[in-house]
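TL;DR need structure tokens for one chain.
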Amino acid sequence: MSQPFALKQLLQIAETTAESAAASLGALNRQLQQHEEKLMLLFKYRDEYQQRLRHAGGSGLDGAGLRNFHEFLERLEQAILQQHALVVDTRTRVECGRNDWQLKERKSKAFGTLAQRFDAVAQRREAGREQKIQDDFASRANRAQHNAHGGGATPKNRR
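>> reply
TL;DR here they are.
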């Protein structure tokens, strides 16, 4: 019987870490999508609010109302800048996560390749061992059959 692949535990660890890195990358991608959606929503709010300001300015707006519009738009701009920074940071984290996953996936595949090669060598050895056993058995059977039919000494050897 063949011995187990010595690096099997390392293969399992590599596969587990690659799966974990893939899951982390998936979570980062979802997080990026959420941050981008929020940024788009903030842009939409800003555009809508600017349109309201233009409409209110055309119909006459007092100083306090105008100041409120501008203060709100300024807070909205700050929120947009913060959200944009968050999107940029998350994109960087996604790229790092992708690189980490690719590295771990390559490592896992390398151990997988080693395991396949080990299995192939073990199968060839086992097949060779079985063939040797069959050859020995056939050789013994042939000798036993030859001896059973009186083939102890050949006529040449007798004088």
